[in-house]
Amino acid sequence: MVVTDVDVAVSPEHQALVETVHRFADEAMRPVGAELDRLPDPADVVAPSSPLWRIFDRHRQLGIGRLEVDESTMEPRERAALQAAMNEELGWGDGGLAVSLAVSNFHVIFAQLSGRPELVERFAAPDSTEIGCWAVTEPDHGSDTLAFTEESFRDPAIKANCLAIPDGDHYVIRGQKSSWVSNGTIATIGTVFCTIDGDEGFSGGGVCIVPLDLPGVSRGKPLDKLGQRALNQGEIFFDEVRVPAEFMVIGKDAYGVAIEMVLALANAYMGMTFVGVARAAYELALAYAKERVQGGVPIIRHQSVRSRLFRMFTQVEAARALARQVALMGALAPPPVQYSIASKTYCTNTAFEVASAAVQIFGGNGLSREYPIEKLLRDARAAMIEDGCNEMLGIVGGAKL
After folding, report:
1. What value does the CA radius of gyration of the chain take, rounded to a whole number of Å?
2. What's the confidence (pLDDT) of residue 69?
3. Cβ pair 273, 90 in contact under 8 A
4. Is the dihedral of CA 184, 190, 195, 197 positive or negative?
5. What is the pLDDT of residues 145-197, one digit of tens each?
6. Residue 181: CB atoms within 10 Å
């Protein structure tokens, strides 16, 4: 376990928590992630008999999502460092499952932000078994829905696929969210980013917490995709769905700020998590290089392999340093969005580059599904597009400089 051997950011008394998460990642997430990845039909990933549900149950029991420690005994930066280390371990276990587990609590953030006791009690109870999703992407709109720095974000001529229309003490939601909604076909609560009225472009949006058992809600099929196959994704349809007005927790006046906050939090999380994926690829390549014999010696004795491994090691450590720094910047409030975007784009690119280098070290075996490294390559590749594709995020981050 590379991270805890040299992890100076986490205090000794909290190291046990990181090791608990590592065991969960090693003993539960990795084998289940590999099993789910091999299923040819993505519907089987979320079938009632799927081992996916054991992961959700165990994650809940361990309290990882809520970080069940007494906040009064932990100063904010220490807590942020601990959370970063734990998120890295979850990514090391399985990147797709880590994203699914994280987004399952997405609605909790907005219920708490609302400051409304009835919403906190309804949607953020500590013993809740609800599964959340972040419903932002649409059939005709992807990362542009998050590009709050760009003129297109405020263009009323660009029409959304999902609208919320005020109707007395309710909103009526109509339209569709696309097949890329994480946890889309299994979520019980949706955090729906929708355009209100539809006359101000994406800037005139709102964030609504929507129980997905309401009349008029339906789902598409689970998406069949290249990587992160353990992460359920799928469409959500809204056919005149009536939602109490108080469930619209963010309105037009604060929507741009909400988008910036979400990008700051989500991108910081992605950076921490995909450091774990990069580390997993590096560790597998290092172990393989010590065992695989070519030319009469373990291949780590060959200078080209040793040099490639050292570059991978350097990349992982650099990515971790950036992800941890951004985590510490966000100890008291969301970090500046440009820093979070830097972390997400750099760490996901690093995960892909390190996984690709690891495949090269494995040689032909790296292309075989008998070995775990090709899965890490596919999972890392998906991360360069999700939560805002890296190119669009770079445009937003650049506008904030």
Report:
1. 21
2. 43
3. yes
4. positive
5. 999 999 999 999 999 999 999 999 999 999 999 999 999 999 999 999 999 99
6. 27
